[in-house]
Amino acid sequence: MGRVSVLIPNWNGRARLESLLPRLKSQTLAPAQVVVADDGSSDGSAEAAARLGAEVVRLPRRQGFAAAVNAGLRACTEEWIALLNNDVEPAPDWLERLLVAAESSKAWFACGKLLRQDDPQRLDGAFDLLCRGATAWRAGAGRLDGSVWDRPRRIHFAGFAAALVRRNLFEIAGPLDERFDSYLEDVDFCLRCALRALDGVYVPQARGRHAGSATLGRWSAASVRLIARNQLLLVALHFPPGWRRSFGRAVLVAQALWGLVALRRGAFRAWLKGKHEGWKMFHSVRGSGPSTDAGRLAALLAESEREILVMQRECGWDAYWRLYFLLAGKPPMPPP
Questions:
Q1: Does the reported pTM lie above 0.90?
Q2: How far apart are CA 100 and CA 41, in angstroms?
Q3: Boundary of a domain, candidates 153, 183, 210
Q4: pLDDT tens digit sequence for 4-22
């Protein structure tokens, strides 16, 4: 069985680190190394992490989740990297279950089932799915736990709040894109992997509880601005020339509907600001990512959308996805 480095990105999360780091000692598979990548904290996080036995990588100022992960990766020494947010409470067998499943299936990465810290009967999320409109769904988010979320499966997208990744995957696909700062940087990374046919597994028996957006706040202005901006960065980086003809309608519908969600949450101004920033960055980012096989991307997004559609029908519709499929149309079916 491989050895694992646990990497925890952190910004002003001293109390959460003081809860999480001792818990890692009770894992049934002991981490070979624990690294805390401290993103310019001012609350004594770095000192607390060092006192609790973690190796600490200190960034001089806050640079965002992606930069903190990249800095921490350079200090990690083991074959596998377990990325873990400081607000996740992993079950004692979380790491072992992920590693056994990933190695036995020869997967490149793995993630498990996260339940909400404030309501453990409901999911914080399982794995991620991405639509043709460049908005992502954390599958199961907010839903009651149940049998549909207990099915192991191959996946293209894993949320990096709690995931296990082969170290050399970051050499093949590249590091996290620091232009994303925080939010959707994991979707961008996994999309790069999926376009290379490097996929992962969902391991529902590997469980944890997640407070969710404990650093910036689930619907804070900062979170909404970054998500709204980064949705456009996904388009700029990955959608092929002529994307407006093939994806334009879906992008317009998905982005506008997400703006309505932000409006309902009292964050419409932050959504507007994020879209403004995204369009300002769009042309400078365009073409700076890896070359994209347009056919592979279209097939991948259609497959992901079909999974969203099936799960929504099985578990009950979110208003967002009902309206999205009504206005953008159903995803194309695979060739016979």
A1: yes
A2: 35
A3: 210
A4: 999 999 999 999 999 999 9
